[in-house]
Amino acid sequence: MSTPEHPSGAPWRNFYGRRHGKTLRDTQREMLDEDLAELSPGPVDWDVNPDRTPLDLKALFGDRPVWLEVGFGGGEHMVHQAALHPEVGIIGCEPFINGVAMLLGKIRNAGVQNVAVHPGDVRDLFDVLPEGSIQRAFLLYPDPWPKKKHHRRRFVTPEHLEPLARVMAPGAIFRVATDIPDYVRQTLEEVPRHGFDWLAERPADWREPWDDWLSTRYEQKALREGRTPHYLTFRRR
Questions:
Q1: Residue 132: is its pLDDT beyond 60?
Q2: Mean pLDDT over the full length of the chain
Q3: How many CB atoms lie within 10 A of CB 131?
Q4: DSSP bridge pairs for 233
Q5: Which of 1-27 are b and which e, b meaning 16 or more Cβ less than 10 Å from the residue's Cβ?
Q6: Complete domains list, the chain, with CATH
Q7: What is the predicted pLDDT for the residue at 227?
Q8: What is the pLDDT of residue 188?
């Protein structure tokens, strides 16, 4: 049976999870209306960009190296990295609109100007990112999809890792943080199969956070509930 396609020729993609949560405050709606279009990296919707024209990252960030955060949650880590590394441009991808609204508030408060926001599925963003264009990627406390029958929905599957590998430059760094042991297992099995080397040499390399780490609200929840974070670092071959 063939995979259904959008009229543009791009494949249909199932999306799992929520796009909306609690009712947004008026100030959050205002930020979505006023700020989001300006921070968008470019047209990634099928109807707007049916030919899936690659993004012009030079027009977006100049000569800065480009980093990508997949599923930025509330945005605290992304804004922290943007403020700490003004020499890079960071694209954040998050389909949960409440998280996008939270990020926009943090961007306003921090005044960072080296960020772009894609409020949607990262697979659509992969379609328009140029090959080898990403120097660093972050996957921090992704949805664990704990039921075995849902493991195929996880990010660390070929559907996501193959295009991730395509858009990452040789030598680029991919960081994964999770508190779910089975997610660690699947990550260590799948990520190296798609062109990455795990850089750990000693237990501290996965037990201790990175030097520029900012603990997220998801990590704080995990710690309160007695779960152990793991910090995995890979390099694109």
A1: yes
A2: 89
A3: 12
A4: 175
A5: eeeeeeeeeeeeeeeeeeeeeeebeee
A6: 62-236 (3.40.50.150)
A7: 97
A8: 98
Active-site annotation, residues: 143
What is the per-residue pLDDT for 5?
57
Q: Which pLDDT score is estimated for 1?
A: 42
| Residue pair 75/106 in contact by the 8 Å Cβ criterion | yes
**What CA–CA distance (Å, rounded) separates 56 from 54?**
6
Instruction: Please give the pLDDT value at position 42.
Output: 82
d(CA 61, CA 82): 12
Element of type H or E holding 37 = helix 26-39
Paired tokens of 34: 């006023």
User: Which residues, in sequence order, are CB contacts of 145 under 8 Å at separation 6+?
Assistant: 16, 151, 153, 154
Tell me 5's DSSP state: B
Q: Which residues pair with 66 in a beta bridge?
A: 89, 134
User: Helices in 56-141 by DSSP H: which ranges?
Assistant: 57-61, 76-84, 97-110, 122-128
Residues 74/80/82/88 CA torsion (nearest 10 deg): -120
